[in-house]
Amino acid sequence: MNPVIQVTALRKTYGSGDTEVHALRGVDLAVWPGEYLAIMGASGSGKSTLLNVLGCLDVPTSGTYKLDGIDVGDLNERQLSLVRNRKIGFVFQSYNLVPRTSALSNVELPLIYSGLRRKERRKRALAALEMVGLLERAGHKPNQLSGGQQQRVALARALVTGPAMVLADEPTGNLDSESTAEVLGVFDRLNRAGRTIVMITHEDNVAAHAARMVRVMDGQIVEDTAQWRMSGALTS
């Protein structure tokens, strides 16, 4: 079994000379199929840069990144776009739903350019909405849904292509405690069903839902609970 994510000696530098910023400083990270990982870090830690690289939204200055066995560095822009669409399901803090479009149509969006017939697109979108417990809200527009329901629609949209990984960026950042619990409950169920989830968060109570936590500081991984568990297993 190969990792979904394999990052080796990853570096990212912005600017040059006096304005040079080392956002990532030799990051090594492996995420295995079915893992639930929380990435934490303060503002400016490199967490957002790592997110952008993992999501194929930015390219590293050096190092390698393999996503589901594919070396991302070997891909052109068109191929990267296909990888983002098929291999990664994105969930953002701000939902990013189309306002005047139903939940069902929002979930269908990633499938429009895949060549699927409308009937098949609709079938998959309805199945994704059922996964997040919103099948009965398929015809509702975003302004008819609560914040938690909107985020669950966004999660259904992320799942509809059957991605190798769901990448969630502060998915509960705009939600109240009740909606946060609803959304995290969906993530928990999805992970128990075998989905790989990588979640960026700054909230300890959100990170506690993940089985593994990685902390980033000054562009480096300074804590990885998977290593703690491995060390404990070796010494017990």
From TrEMBL:
<dbReference type="InterPro" id="IPR015854">
    <property type="entry name" value="ABC_transpr_LolD-like"/>
</dbReference>
<dbReference type="InterPro" id="IPR027417">
    <property type="entry name" value="P-loop_NTPase"/>
</dbReference>
<protein>
    <submittedName>
        <fullName>ABC transport system ATP-binding protein</fullName>
    </submittedName>
</protein>
<dbReference type="InterPro" id="IPR017911">
    <property type="entry name" value="MacB-like_ATP-bd"/>
</dbReference>
<dbReference type="InterPro" id="IPR003439">
    <property type="entry name" value="ABC_transporter-like_ATP-bd"/>
</dbReference>
<dbReference type="GO" id="GO:0005524">
    <property type="term" value="F:ATP binding"/>
</dbReference>
<keyword id="KW-0067">ATP-binding</keyword>
<dbReference type="Pfam" id="PF00005">
    <property type="entry name" value="ABC_tran"/>
</dbReference>
<dbReference type="InterPro" id="IPR017871">
    <property type="entry name" value="ABC_transporter-like_CS"/>
</dbReference>
<keyword id="KW-0547">Nucleotide-binding</keyword>
<keyword id="KW-0813">Transport</keyword>
<dbReference type="InterPro" id="IPR003593">
    <property type="entry name" value="AAA+_ATPase"/>
</dbReference>
<feature type="domain" description="ABC transporter">
    <location>
        <begin position="5"/>
        <end position="234"/>
    </location>
</feature>
